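Thought: the user wants the 3D structure for the chain below. I'll pass the sequence to the structure tool as-is, report back what it returns, then summarize two notable features.
Action: structure_tool
Action Input:
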Amino acid sequence: MSILTMTTDWGLRDHYLAAFKGELISRSRDIRIVDISHEIEKFNILQASFIIKNAFRKFPEGSIHFIGLEGNTQPESSSFLIVKSEGHFFIGRDSGIFSLILDNQSKEVYDLKIESSADNSIIYSRLIDILCSLSEGEQAEKLGQVADSVIQSYFARPTTDHTGIRAVVIYIDDFGNVIVNVSKELFDDQRKGRKFTIFLRKAQYNINRISNNYTDAESGEIVAFFNRDGYLEIALNRESAAGLLGIKVLENIRIEFDDNENS
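Observation:
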């Protein structure tokens, strides 16, 4: 049985998702569909790529990952691709999302030659055909034409110097937890045992210690820790940190180290 994950910005209110799944199941009874998310903000490839990037490796090799959102590129200027990497297959429009998910990992890229200006019914019928064929073991190179590359997009990367780290908020989850593009490895390497301050928009909430998890703080207290995906996370126990602090995605976060005293 093949695993097919779906990540889209189609939402849950309308019939589009159910109709798409219904056609898939009707054509391939052995396909197992797993929903990653259908509540991606419209056309937001940064949000979608973060979610897929942190989920797909939990699935077995050979899994197929369908990405159903357009991105901000003009639809007629972007191709539908199969991208094979790390033993997984990704299918969707080449909006820049593949490079965000896979970074510099090696990739096999196949252009599906689906006419972008065609009616949506034709496009989705063709995509369903391809998803079913791939799930039944058809080789990717038989479903598309070899392509050289994918459109390049980039997550903001932290910058460092001796005094600290300049980082960026890359995601805010449904609980209002703020995820920053700083790994534990980078933090420890730059910190070198020094005391530090994480500066937030509201100075009274600046943070100077790393906790283990949410429960290290009292209810309503701001806490910082490294989450299961390895990112620095700023949270408010049982409330929304993003809401309290007024923080948005792509906002700058500054971490400064104190040379005067080691922790």
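Final Answer: Structure generated. The chain has two domains: 3-147, 159-262. The longest strand covers residues 252-262.
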